[in-house]
Amino acid sequence: MKYIIIDDEPLAIDVLTGYCGKMDFLELGATFTNPLDAISMIKEKRVDLIFCDIEMPQISGIDFISSLDNRPLFIFTTAYPQYAVEGFDLNAVDYLVKPIPYNRFIKAVSRAKELFASKEKAVEANVFSSYGEAGDAQHFVFVKAEYESVKINLDDIEYIQGLKDYLKIHVVNTNKTILTRMSFGEILDKLPANQFFRVHKSFIVNVNFIKRIQRNRIVINDVRIPIGESHKAEFFSLLGL
Fold this sequence. Notes:
The protein is of the alpha/beta class. It contains seven helices and 15 strands. The chain has helices at residues 10-20, 39-43, 61-67, 84-89, 102-124, 184-190, 229-239, and strands at 2-6, 27-32, 49-53, 73-78, 94-97, 140-145, 148-153, 157-163, 166-171, 177-180, 196-200, 203-206, 212-214, 217-220, 223-226. Strands 2-1-3-4-5 form a five-stranded parallel β-sheet, sandwiched between helices. It is globular and about 55 Å long.
């Protein structure tokens, strides 16, 4: 995977290049202190992964990533954790808070590697991928409900609740829920890892619908979802909290 780093701090660039140099599947494309200088390289589709700072003098990392039409995979790197939810709204692979611990870096790039492999596999099979480029992607999943397969748009799933041998999928703007006989492992294999997180033994949430986080609870459309002790540390770490 060819990557670039965009950060106005040379020291931060040095840290990331040092980390990336230990990963045999990562190849440095270039580093930039001004995000605008990276546009031509990205437009030529010679970039698979972007490490992008958020607070920069020329343009914020969030605004820069939002402006890209053909967006590669990207990981936000910043000293400001308050942008986490906004970052995940853009479907960031991960959100790393400086100073970046090496173990968190490994988790982030491993997730990026998995998403990249899924994208490449879809291209080879000539099918649409949930992680495809803007305008080409089909963001949906099929699940079996009763005697048929139901198509659900990923962006419409608010959260998923486990009920013994079934999963209850809550869909936005409807009072209906979809009941499917699947395990959490099976449904997670179908969902993009940068958008859906298991936060409890009985719940998966779509990070785009999180309104508030209250200690051990997540609020989604006035529904309070518990955060399990075994999932809390990783979930908060992923959000940079």
